[in-house]
Automatic annotation (TrEMBL):
Keywords linked to the UniProt accession: Cell membrane, Ion transport, Membrane, Transmembrane, Transmembrane helix, Transport, Zinc, Zinc transport
Known role: Involved in the high-affinity zinc uptake transport system.
Organism: Marinobacter daepoensis
PANTHER family, sorted: ABC-TRANSPORTER METAL-BINDING PROTEIN (PTHR30477), HIGH-AFFINITY ZINC UPTAKE SYSTEM MEMBRANE PROTEIN ZNUB (PTHR30477:SF23)
Classification via Pfam families: ABC-3 (PF00950)
Membrane topology classification: Multi-pass membrane protein
Transmembrane helix is among the record's keywords: yes
Protein family: Belongs to the ABC-3 integral membrane protein family.
Compartment(s): Cell membrane
Database matches in InterPro entries: ABC_BtuC-like, ABC_TroCD
Regions crossing the membrane: 12-35, 47-80, 92-114, 135-155, 175-208, 220-240, 246-265
Lineage: Bacteria, Pseudomonadati, Pseudomonadota, Gammaproteobacteria, Pseudomonadales
Name the record gives this protein: High-affinity zinc uptake system membrane protein ZnuB
NCBIfam families given in the database record: PRK09543.1
Gene3D superfamilies the record matches: ABC transporter involved in vitamin B12 uptake, BtuC
Length: 270
C-alpha cells in the first residue's frame, strides 16, 4: 500500500483534501462575489443545486454534472429575466432561489426508490467524500483557476467599471457568462464539504475577511485562499473532535476568523 493509498483510504483526510481543493478555488472566485455584490446570486445558484440533484436521479446522469447543468440553466434564466426589468433583481433572485429549492425537494419526494441523505446535501457530509469526488473537486478547481487566470484582466476591468470595459472592447456579457459557469462548477464540487445551503458562505466569508487586510486585488485573492484553507482545516478538525456537522463547522470557523481579523483591525486603528 502506498502513502497516497493510506491517506486517501481515511475518510477524514479525504474530506480534508477535498475541502482544501474547494478553498483554493472558492477564494479567488469569492473575491468576485464580494466585489460585484453577487451574494444573493450565489445563494440562488446554490439553492438550484438541489433541483439539479433531483433531475440527475430522474434522467440518470452523474450528480455533479446534473448540478452544473442546472446551475448554468438557472444562471442563463436569471440573465434573460433580469433584462425584462419587470421585477427588481433581488425579488427575482428570491423567487428563483426558493422555488428551485422547493421544486427539488418535491421532485425527490416523488422518487421513493431513491435514497437521498438530505441533511448531508444541505449541510455537507464528512463521511460521503470519495475518490471520485476528489477528482471532481481538483479537476473543477484546475479548470476554474485556469479560466480565471486567462480572463483575469477582463473580469477585473468589467468589475471595476463595466461601461469603460465595453468602450475598451472587452466582451462584458461573455465574461459574465463565464463567471456564472465558474460559480456553477464550484457549487457542484463544494456540496460534499459545506452542503447546498452553506456554499455561498464559504465563497463570501474568506473573501470578505481578506478584503480588510488586502492592498490590491491579487493580494486579496491570496489572502482569501489562505483564510479558506484555515476555515476548512479548522472546521473539519472541530467536526472530528466534537462530532459536529462538517459543513456548519467550516462556516463557523470562517466566521470566527472574520471576527478576529475585523476585531484586531479595529483595535489596531483605535
Amino acid at each position: 500500500m502506498t502513502i497516497l493509498d493510506s491517506v486517501l483510504g481515511d475518510f477524514f483526510w479525504r474530506a480534508m483534501l477535498g475541502g482544501l481543493g474547494v478553498a483554493l478555488v472558492a477564494g479567488p472566485l469569492g473575491c468576485f462575489v464580494v466585489w460585484r455584490r453577487l451574494a444573493y446570486f450565489g445563494d440562488t445558484l446554490a439553492h438550484s443545486a438541489l433541483l439539479g440533484i433531483a433531475l440527475s436521479f430522474l434522467i440518470s446522469v452523474p450528480l455533479n454534472l446534473g448540478v452544473v447543468i442546472t446551475c448554468v440553466l438557472i444562471a442563463l434564466a436569471l440573465v434573460l429575466l433580469s433584462r425584462t426589468r419587470t421585477l427588481a433583481s433581488d425579488t427575482l433572485l428570491g423567487i428563483l432561489a426558493h422555488s428551485a429549492l422547493a421544486i427539488g425537494l418535491v421532485t425527490l419526494s416523488f422518487m421513493p426508490d431513491v435514497r437521498v441523505d438530505l441533511t448531508g446535501l444541505l449541510f455537507g457530509d464528512l463521511l460521503a467524500m470519495t475518490r471520485q469526488d476528489l477528482l471532481w473537486i481538483y479537476g473543477g478547481a484546475a479548470f476554474v483557476l485556469g479560466l480565471l487566470a486567462l480572463l483575469w484582466r477582463g473580469l477585473l476591468m468589467s468589475t471595476i467599471h463595466e461601461e469603460l470595459a465595453r468602450v475598451e472592447g472587452i466582451p462584458v456579457e461573455r465574461l459574465r457568462l463565464a463567471l456564472m459557469l465558474m460559480f456553477s462548477l464550484v457549487i457542484a464540487v463544494a456540496m460534499k464539504i459545506v452542503g447546498v445551503l452553506l456554499i455561498t458562505a464559504l465563497l463570501i466569508i474568506p473573501a470578505a475577511t481578506a478584503r480588510r487586510l488586502a492592498h490590491n486585488p491579487e493580494h486579496m485573492t491570496v489572502l482569501a485562499v489562505g483564510f479558506g484553507v484555515l476555515a476548512v482545516s479548522g472546521g473539519l478538525t472541530l467536526s472530528w473532535h466534537l462530532d459536529t456537522p462538517a459543513g456548519p463547522s467550516v462556516v463557523v470557523t470562517a466566521f470566527l476568523i472574520f471576527l478576529l481579523v475585523y476585531g484586531g483591525a479595529r483595535q489596531s486603528r483605535l
